[in-house]
Amino acid sequence: MNASDKNAQNDYLATEDKIEKDETIKFNTLVKGTGSPTIIFESGLGTPLSNWDKIQSKISDNYKTISYDRKGIGQSPVTDSPRTLENLVTDLDNVITQNKIEGPIILVGHSLGGHIVRKYQQSFPSKIAGLFLIDPTNEYIYEEVFDQMPQTAADSMKTAWDNNFKKNSIGVFNEWKEVYDIDQIMRKYPLPADIPITILASYQESTFLTKKNAQIKKEQFSDWKKDKPNVKILNTTNSGHYIHLGEPEWVINELETFLKKLK
User: Fold this and answer.
1) Residue 181 belongs to domain with CATH number
2) CA dist list (Å): 48 to 53, 79, 169, 219, 254
3) Are the beta carbons of 221 and 228 closer than 8 angstroms?
4) Integer Cα distance of 136 and 58 in angstroms
5) Quick check: bond before 104 cis, omega within 30?
6) Beta pairing, strands 29-32 & 78-79
């Protein structure tokens, strides 16, 4: 991880110890601005809404914006329900319902949040006018990377990741436990061809994103765009996985361009 990535993963707010079983709970939510469409920000794995501060503050000058902490993250209460994709999508729908958002909606998703907003769009297509994805997780990336590694090296990396996430809060670890199953589910849901989609992709090399793995990622992202003129992919090597922290002005400019084209 680069410095921004580390800051993002360390930027947790205190989570209450109690386990919340009531599925009608109120999420820790930040609503700013007015205007249409409504922009909803979906964070990456284990990441609180504060990750969106710079982006949301600027975009809310002209649009209604919403960011929130998922259950067990930031200041939203912990849940005893697994962080399956179905539950994550249901939680996003509860946030939309609680805030009385009828549409049109633009979903902005980072990393794991990309899976969540894509699946939400598949489940509620009439509500979503577009997707803006920031270095979203590709549903084949881990499998292909591990397949081209020696088995012992792949097993060692998986164990190291598991041990690292076990040191985090239970909310973060519970999201991590579901990521491989979520990848499998998302293989059934290709990107839609009937709404505008912009993807910002980082190819900055890191411990995981070696030159070889970056090439795998590029090929997978290209597959997303194949036969879909509605999909636009923009690349950077100037920031790591947390592009919205490393290059906030670029993200803001591209998101504003995306939104203006919808009008």
Assistant:
1) 3.40.50.1820
2) 10, 16, 12, 30, 22
3) no
4) 22
5) yes
6) unpaired
Quote the CA–CA distance of 201 and 217 in Å, as a whole number: 9
Q: Could you report the per-residue pLDDT of 185-234, keeping only the tens digit for each?
A: 999 999 999 999 999 999 999 888 899 999 999 999 999 999 999 999 99
Q: Which sign does the torsion angle of CA 192, 198, 203, 207 carry?
A: negative
Q: SS in 3 state form for the chain? A: CCHHHHHHHHCCCCCCCCEECCCCCCCCEEEECCCCCEEEEECCCCCCHHHHHHHHHHHCCCCEEEEECCCCCCCCCEECCCCCHHHHHHHHHHHHHHCCCCCCEEEEEECHHHHHHHHHHHHCHHHEEEEEEECCCCCCHHHHHHHCCCHHHHHHHHHHHHHHHHCCCHHHHHHHCCHHHHHHHHCCCCCCCCCCEEEEEECCCCCCCCHHHHHHHHHHHHHHHCCCCCEEEEEECCCCCCHHHHCHHHHHHHHHHHHHHHC
How many separate domains does the chain show? 1
Query: Is beta strand 64-68 parallel, antiparallel or unpaired with respect to 29-32?
Result: antiparallel
Residues 6+ apart with CB under 8 A from 75: 13, 14, 15, 16, 28, 48, 69
pLDDT tens sequence across 77-103: 999 899 999 999 999 999 999 999 987
Range of the domain at 187: 3-262
Query: pTM of the prediction?
Result: 0.91
Establish whether the linkage from the previous residue to 37 is cis, with ω within 30° of 0.
yes
The two tokens of residue 174 are 């519970």
